[in-house]
Amino acid sequence: MARGSTSKNSKNNNLDGFSAATVFEKEQGITYKDFLILPGYIDFAPQDVSLETQVTRNVRTKLPLISSPMDTVTESQMAITLALLGGIGIIHNNLSMEDQAAQVERVKRYENGFITDPIVLSPKNTIADIDNISLRYGFSGVPITEDGTLRSKLVGIVANRDVDFERDRTIPLAKVMTTELVTAPKGISLIQANEILRKSKKGKLPIVDKEGRLVALMSRTDLLKNREYPSATKDSQKRLRVGAATSTHPHDRERIEMLIARGVDLLVIDSAQGYSKFQIDMLKEMKKKYPDVDIMAGNVVTREQGEALIKAGADALRIGMGPGSICITQDTMACGRSQATAVYYTALMAAKYKIPVIADGGISNIGDIAKALAVGASATMCGSLLAGSKEAPGDYYYENGVRLKKFRGMASIEAMEGGGGAKRYNVEDQKIRVAQGVSGAVVDKGSLFEFIPYLMQGVRHALQDMGCRDIPSLHKALYSQKLRFEPRSLAAQAQGGVHGLYSYKKPIIGAD
Ligand code: IMP
């Protein structure tokens, strides 16, 4: 053994810690909390760290962050927000294929700063309809089109001041609407449209096509919020990118067709145990039929499982069986794998094929994201971390004075009754359904527009501490054994967290 060496695995050098190979080849599976990464050499600032990554063979994002296809996590608002900020959202499939396709379409049609699905009325509607709208949505500037639908000819606009003093609320809007309109042409830039809106002093700016049909609306109240998102995840036509989940069930072939017709960028075959004939057959068939649409396959946790899916055409692998915050799979099914071990081995195998792996589940703080990337993941998929945000589906409610939102496993009894969860867990046709998840609540996280930048700046700091400027160089350091790992004892874990204080103020995230 060379002098200064601490184990046979660090022979010929005097590096502290161990290679990932040494740490993970132990008999015991481990997860993020069980190890630390030893610091590297810093000669750059956190803002020099790029988090750009490959989430599938052909889809790149600026941030290694994907939202889980869960019915309390990802619908269009979550997907739009994540894509604007540089990640990508996967619309869940616990809803009819028409509804799921409509969610996808909403993301694809979204234009930052423009309302692409405004509420529209016809000249025949009455002032009472305007009253209803202001009661329900809190606004009153409503565009009026010939037949009361979007994409029909714009004929007027009704604002509060047009109807304020009218006693008779049954008067048709044709009589009160403003017909002298300031409009902007379809295709106008956000900056130009903002400028017209500012100068016009109007509350709303309708956007119309060449034939004068309404295609979108801009609102004065959003003027200050309308900003550019340079890191947004976009397709070649500059539309936001979005993914959608599907099952391996034969009748979901129609769902897939519909999702693709609406422009979905990425399909996720949502299955708790992805190493199945159903998934392999589905992958082969879909890759043949739709070679241009990337498919993330899974979930898998072993090299054998992952390799089979790659050979069947997978463009990314989703890794995780049992680490999810709401998950009881390991207790109920006896199968699964400790998450860091699962990510390490599958990534090691997938690297040979240049296929990215996604660490799915069990991410509870910034350090977990950084560790998942450090053991080979190209991106992380998060459920609980993003649930409870303003952009997650569902309403807030209070329990013991704490503001909460519902969050549930897709294999919780509640979600399985909704349909999609049952498909994921292969129990759709069964009379007795065994739950693999629970239903609960998470605390209000506020808006992701503040939370995600904080989270990602934390990850940049973590990579800086490791001495790596980007994810590819982190993976290079992992496989060249330059990146050094060290398991830590339970006492060390306790000491690594906040301890010995009577009370303290928790940061936005990070102190469990
Ligand atoms: P989290 O980020 O720890 O909350 O984990 C989210 C991940 O848990 C999802 O992306 C799914 O892979 C997984 N998951 C979702 N619902 C269930 C369930 O009911 N049981 C087990 N795992 C689930």
Explained architecture:
The chain has 512 residues and is α/β, with parallel strands linked by helices. The chain contains 17 helices and 20 strands. It has helices at residues 20-24, 76-85, 97-109, 127-137, 160-163, 190-200, 252-261, 277-289, 303-311, 329-333, 339-353, 366-374, 413-418, 420-424, 448-466, 471-479, 490-496; strands at residues 35-37, 53-54, 60-61, 65-67, 88-91, 142-145, 154-158, 184-185, 204-208, 214-219, 243-246, 266-269, 294-300, 316-319, 357-360, 379-382, 397-399, 402-408, 439-443, 485-487. Strands 4-5-11-12-13-14-15-16 form an eight-stranded parallel barrel, surrounded by seven helices. Strands 8-9-10 form a three-stranded mixed sheet, covered by helices on one side. A three-stranded antiparallel sheet has the order 17-18-19. α2 runs parallel beside α3 (97-109). The longest helix has 19 residues, at 448-466.
